[in-house]
Amino acid sequence: MDTPDFTAVFEKLPRPYLVIDAHFVIVAQNDAHAAVTMMKKGSAIGRQLFEVYPDNPEHYSADGVSYLRASILSVIKTRHADEMAMQKYDVQRSWAQGGGFETRYWRVVNIPILDDKGFVKWILNCPEDVTASKA
Which of 18, 53, 122, 130: CA 20 to 30 A from 25? Predict the structure, then answer.
């Protein structure tokens, strides 16, 4: 029996997924995540999470970064998944898409992936865009 190519499976999953390391560096992004966040596929790999997905600077009260950071830090500390409450986290559009930010609402689960010693090696970030349900 052939072993599945899990990279190919991951990339084609219909829900968006992002994999980051314990230092907030993006190590993998599937096609659905690139599409929902309006990113060019692969352009986020190797970059810091909050460099790629910053708070909207036009909204002084934007706090998505701080909530996401707290969730990820909780996952690293407890080694348990963390399900975040729904929150507003704007998505930056490319210049080809007109630039600026687009308002989105998300439900996010961050799931630890442990190494053989039981420490967090990666975090699987599983966002669900629930913007349509806010309308």
Answer: 130
d(CA 57, CA 50): 13
| Mean pLDDT estimate for the chain | 90
> How wide is the angle at C-alpha 23 spanned by C-alphas 19 and 27, nearest 5°?
30
The answer on pLDDT for 123 being more than 70 is: yes
Burial of residue 40 (number of CB atoms within 10 Å: 0-12, 13-18, 19+): exposed
pTM of the model: 0.88
Please answer whether residues 28 and 18 qualify as being in contact, where contact means their C-beta atoms are separated by less than 8 angstroms. Answer: yes
Distance CA 34, CA 57 (A): 22
Classify each residue of 68-79 as buried b or exposed e, where b means 16 or more C-beta atoms within 10 Å of its C-beta.
beebbebbbeee
